[in-house]
Predict the 3D structure of the following.
Amino acid sequence: MKAIMGLEVHVQLRTESKLFCGCGTDLDGRGPNENTCPICLGFPGSKPKVNRRAVEHAVKIARALNCTVWPEVRFSRKSYFYPDMPKNFQITQYDVPLAEGGYLPLDGGRIGITRVHLEEDPAKLAHVGGGITSALYTLIDYNRSGVPLVEIVTEPDITSPKEARLFLDKLSLILEHLGAYDPGREGSIRVDANISLEGGQRVEVKNLTGFRTVEDALNYEIVRQRSMANIGIAVERETRHYDAETNTTSSLRGKEYEEDYGYIVEPDLVKIELDQKWVGRLEAEMPELPDARIERFIEEYGIPRFQSGVIVNAGLEMSRFFEESCRLHGDPGEVASWTVTSLMKSLNFEGLSLAGSEVRPETFVELLELIDEGVISERLAKELVKDYVGTGESPRRLVESRGLGLMEREELRNAIDAVLAENQRAVADYLSGRERALDFLLGQVLRRIQARGRPLEVKNLIKEALDSSGKCLGSSAGRAPGC
Ligand SMILES: [Zn+2]
């Protein structure tokens, strides 16, 4: 049984004020229900007005998703009776959405975009003393009520939970490039996921935050719906809630049908005409999007497609970091490979984002310069990256303060002699023809000098030392001259 999935993605747009009133959208530090006015509280007689910036964001998002933007925008009232909507209706778009009929290329295929429309965010509910189905009571905060949302609805083209996550990763990257949302704000993208098995009823899992959560919830639903089908129970059309702690979904309510919402045109808002010239102007000011950026990096910096993809997909911050580092260092190939391997791995290990770390292009390229100048070995650089990422301290200063520069040849020879003296057995093995003993000795020396030598050079020096000691051992008349 094939699973069929589609997503409804709600994105809080990055605007100064709410969709229909002048209240701000920055809710940090505001007490409950402080950030409200008669319009976003839905008082009778209050007159909403459309936020131009929100429409601009929505148009850009629609065009980035290859949708047709319709020349007229109308709003509708979607009636439902739930405490998060003080008016008992939500102002949204229904029969004529802002844009329709687009797609997002994904991994060689494409996911169809049914529609993109604007609507207002409802209030936030706080369930006290339990979860959504078990709370003792529920508090309502209308601060969020009226924050502009764009809803992006996909076609049921998604064939696996993993693909759903990849779609969301790519979509959010595009939104980040457009400056349309704030990736740092919690809950700024919320997803309703629709899923059915071929021939079965569709189930909607509501209000998922976090793309991993979407993947987990869909995986659970596939198992649940398949098990039901296997024992001959029909899946019902309904809305379900996902509990991340138990990794299960539970029934919230029977799925509403469109006629349940009693849509009517919003009489308090006039229709907005989207002049095609204006849409064209907005399109012209759209920034470079991720797919185009991946191609440009390959062409402009001559780096492999894989590395370009990893850098761009890591977010806007990482792309900018890479370009600035290239400008400062001048060897994009080296910058790319150190970024993709050592830097990103260390950030990951420390659980840091690039923006949340002290890593800067100016200090990052110091590390590469230290290798170029022959001050440190690549191996030591890989060790240094860890300390650098953790502290942001200049690699040059780290090397100086710890005396970590490459050893002089004489110093190296002394270290090698000491290791050979301690490992007579390996020396004898090597001299009797077991080449692999050399690798063992190399490892011992590198450990002793703490990677303060280039492995190839050190290896040659060890060989030299061994070969000359071999000559000495081989001489029959005691110590040969020079031994
Ligand atoms: Zn307001």
Observations:
- The pocket of zinc ion is lined by residues 18, 21, 23, 36-37, 39-40, 146 (CB under 6 Å).
